[in-house]
Every structure is written in structure tokens, then in C-alpha cells.
Design goal:
The protein is mainly alpha-helical. It has helices at residues 58-68, 72-86, 91-110, 114-127, 140-152; strands spanning 134-135, 138-139.
Length: 172
């Protein structure tokens, strides 16, 4: 699940990344500050999300891209659209909420708020406890192990989500 230090994480979309990674207190707020990378940009709305169609959901795939490349706040925002579209209390919605919390936990750890980061990661994993196997392209068991290892300090590299996908499904 984690990539080696020398390799770049996979990309699942060709969407460009924002001009900077938002870190609270260190860069302009993306949507509230006139200098923000998403200031006055319309919010992307997703009307529905079916877990069997995840490979066709550009917003979900972009959220994974953002997460894997360290755009943690931005990943949270993209995945929140998916969470709402999936239904917040559905199995899929809870799983996506767990991903959102784990993204936020990574951001907290980057800010050196290690205890809150670990607590948030645990909450995120708790939201995913009802899912096993491959879900939304994620090997859930490996993902759990990677998250636990990173937030316990056993692995210094942030978690990378390597989606298990049929290559013809995400070609444009």
C-alpha cells in the first residue's frame, strides 16, 4: 500500500493539481481567501455515487489522486462530495467518511499534531470496520495495516492508496 520513497504515487485522473497544498496557518485558505487556489470557483456537485461504479467517478478518483500526492485538505473536500452523494449513513458513505477522516489525520500529522492525528485515524478506521476485501478499489486489510503502521510511527511514509482497477475502466 505504501510506495517506496523513489517512486511517484499512481494517478487515476488527468485533472491538474491545485497550485499549492493548503496547510492551515501556512497558506491562504483555498476558498475563503482571494489568493486561494479555489477562490470563487463553483463547488463541484455530485448527484449520486454507486459503489459498483467507482471506477467511473472522476470526483472519487481525483480525491484519491489528491490524497496520494499530499493535497490532504483538497482530498477531504473532493471526497466529501462523494460522501454526500453516496448517502452519509450508507455503508459506502461511512467508508468514504473514514477516508475523509484519514486524510484529515494525515494533515494533522503533517502539522505535528500527532495525538489528534492518531485519534482521527482511529475514528476513520472505525468507520470502515464493516467492510472487508476489496472495496471501492481499495484492499481494505492492507489499507488498515498501512494506516495503523503510519500513525503508530512504525512507518515514516504517508499512506498511498493503490487502487485495484481494471485498466480499461479508467481510460479516458
Amino acid at each position: 500500500m505504501n510506495s517506496s520513497a523513489n517512486s511517484s504515487p499512481p494517478r487515476y485522473t488527468d485533472r491538474p493539481f491545485p497550485s499549492y497544498r493548503f496547510i492551515p496557518g501556512k497558506s491562504p485558505h483555498p476558498t475563503r481567501n482571494p489568493n486561494g487556489h479555489s477562490y470563487n470557483k463553483p463547488l463541484e456537485e455530485l448527484t449520486s455515487f454507486a459503489n459498483k461504479q467507482w471506477q467511473r467517478c472522476d470526483v472519487y478518483l481525483y480525491g484519491i489522486d489528491l490524497f496520494n500526492h499530499g493535497y490532504l485538505w483538497e482530498a477531504h473536500e473532493a471526497l466529501e462530495n462523494v460522501w454526500i452523494a453516496a448517502g452519509r449513513k450508507t455503508e459506502t458513505g461511512l467508508f468514504i467518511q473514514g477516508l475523509i477522516q484519514i486524510s484529515a489525520a494525515h494533515l494533522k500529522k503533517l502539522q505535528e499534531f500527532n495525538i489528534p492525528a492518531k485519534q482521527l485515524a482511529i475514528k476513520g478506521l472505525e468507520k470502515m470496520k464493516h467492510v472487508n476485501g476489496i472495496y471501492l478499489g481499495i484492499d481494505v486489510s492492507n489499507f488498515r495495516c498501512s494506516v495503523e503502521s503510519y500513525f503508530s510511527g512504525n512507518n515514516k511514509s504517508p499512506v498511498i492508496i493503490q487502487l485495484i482497477t481494471n485498466s480499461k475502466c479508467h481510460n479516458k
